[in-house]
Amino acid sequence: MSSLSEYALRMTRLSARLFGEVARPTDSKSMKVVKLFSEQPLAKKKETYDWYPNHNTYFGLMGTLRFLGLCSGSKYRCVFKAETTEMADTEYKGKDSKPEYLEEMLPKYTT
């Protein structure tokens, strides 16, 4: 006599199909495919579509900084005037020339 009736076998297969499990016993190669298709698609994963920063937000923030006068320079090279002048006043008082790292940060104007 069989361990499960035909009705019980059909119900177990139906419940496996309903809950996303494998309906019939399969080998390991087929289980790899089942596992691959049961995962979330690559385009829906947060790591994929959230990889790059939100450029529109950064563009708006940079425009606001330029409008307020906190940012100067061509393109997106930003020099925060208050911070650089404060650093120059506190650290390098009495020196005639600007420090090298400040000269690299400031935009170069050719005359």
Structure notes:
This is Small ribosomal subunit protein mS33. Belongs to the mitochondrion-specific ribosomal protein mS33 family. Pfam families: MRP-S33 (PF08293). It is found in: Mitochondrion. This protein is mostly helical. It has 2 domains: 6-41, no CATH class; 55-105, no CATH class. It has helices at 6-18, 28-38, 46-49, 55-68, 81-91, 100-105. The termini are far apart.
Structural key phrases:
111 residues, mainly alpha, 2 domains, rod-shaped
Concise overview:
This protein is an all-alpha fold and 111 residues long.
Specify the helix fraction band. Answer: 40-55%
Head-to-tail CA distance between termini: 101 Å
Helical run tally: 6
Give the rounded overall mean pLDDT: 75
Summarize the biggest pleated sheet. none
Query: What overall form do the CA principal axes indicate?
Result: rod-shaped
Fraction in beta strands? under 5%
Q: Nearest-angstrom radius of gyration?
A: 32 Å
Count of individual domains: 2
Strand element count? 0
Low-confidence spans = none
Quickly give the structural class.
mainly alpha
Write the element-wise H/E pattern from the N-terminal end onward: HHHHHH
Pfam family, one: MRP-S33
InterPro entries: Ribosomal_mS33
Main location: mitochondrion
Organism: Marmota marmota marmota (Alpine marmot)
